[in-house]
Design goal:
Radius of gyration: 20 Å
Largest sheet: 8 strands, mixed
Bound molecules: (3R)-3-hydroxy-3-methyl-5-(phosphonooxy)pentanoic acid
Structural class: alpha+beta
Helix content: 25-40%
Shape: globular
Mean pLDDT: 94
Number of domains: 2
Number of helices: 9
CATH architecture of the largest domain: 2-Layer Sandwich
Low-confidence stretches: none
CATH class of the largest domain: Alpha Beta
Distance between the termini: 27 Å
Order of helices and strands: EEEEEEHEHHEEHEHHHHEEHEE
Strand content: 15-25%
Amino acid sequence: MKNNKISGSICWESPSNIALVKYWGKKGRQLPRNPSVSMSLKNSITRTKLDYEPKKIGDQLSFLFEGKREVSFENRIVKWFDRLANEFDFLSDFTFFISSENTFPHSTGIASSASAMSSLALCLCSLEEEVLGVHKDESEFFQKASRIARLGSGSASRSVYGGFAAWGKTNSFSKSSDEFAVSCSKQVNPVFQDFQDAILLVSSEKKEVSSTVGHQLMENHPYAEARYAQANDNFENLLDILRSGDLNAFIEILENEALSLHGLMMNSSPSFTLMKPNTLELIDRIRSYRKTHNVPLGFTLDAGPNIHLLFPKLEKKRVLPFIESELVPLLENGKYILDEAGSGPKKIKK
Ligand code: PMV
C-alpha cells in the first residue's frame, strides 16, 4: 500500500445550479444528448467533509447526511467511487468517512445532487493533489472536478463553477465538451451577473419518478430527435442572449425550456407529471403579472413541481411584494427561498 501513513480531512462547499437550457437524455458514460447551460446559486449550498485514513480489511465507506446515516446515497457514492478507480488509483488505499450538510432547508424538494456530488468531487480532486504532492493549475483542477462530478450526476458537472456554466459539445462554443462543463461567466452581460432566483416551494413530496428514470425514458421517446435539435438551437441562442442582455428573449427561451422538459415527461411512455395544480396556477399568475406590469421576470422548473422565478436584481423592489401578495398563498407552508447567482465553490480551511 502506497498511502499507508496518510490520513486527514478535506472540506468543500459547492452550490446547486438551475439549468436554463436543460439536460434531459444521456448516452454512454453519463454523456449528455444535448448541451445545457446553468446559473450557479449563492445560498443553496452543500458542505461536504471527506475524512480519510489508511484502509484496513473489512473497512467500509460511510456517509452521513446532516448527522444521520443515509444508506441510499451511500450506495450511490460507493458505485460512483467504483467507477472512479481508473481516475484515482489511490481510492482503494483509503477508508472514507463522508459527512455532508445543506445550507438550504431539507425536505423542500430542491434538488441537491448537483451540490452534493460536485462538493464531493472537489474533495476527491484535492485529495489527489495531497496524495500525489502536486498542484494542478486552477483551470485544470476545476475541469477535472467537473468531469468527476459528471460521473456522479450530470448536472453536478456545472456546479464546480460560479456564475454561468455550459456542459456539452456544440459547434458554436469551441471549449465545449461532453466530458466536462466550462465556465461561460466572462461573456455574460452584467444584468445577469447578480440575477435573482426566487425558489417557490410548491411541494416537498418525494418525486414519483426520478431523473434517472426520466433520462432513460428519452431513449425511445417519439420526440427525442426534435428535442435535441430544439435544445441545440436554444443553447446557441441563449449564449448570444447572455452576452447581449436581451431580457425578453431570455424569458422566452427560459420558459420554453421548462415547459418542453415537462412536456417530454407528460408524453413519455409511461407518462408522468411532476407539476402540481399550483405549479400551473403560479405560471399563470407570473405571466399575467409580467404582461400587465411590464416587468421582465420569467420562470423555469427543474425535474419537480417547484418554480424558479428569475429576474434582474434591480426589479427586486417590485417583484418581492408581488411574490408576497399573489404567489405565497399558493406555496407549501407559504415558503420560498430567495437566492441569486453565486460565485461558485469554496474550499473550507481546517
Ligand atoms: O443531473 P441529473 O441526472 O439529476 O439530471 C438533471 C436534470 C435537470 O435538472 C432536469 C436538468 C438539468 O440540466 O439540470
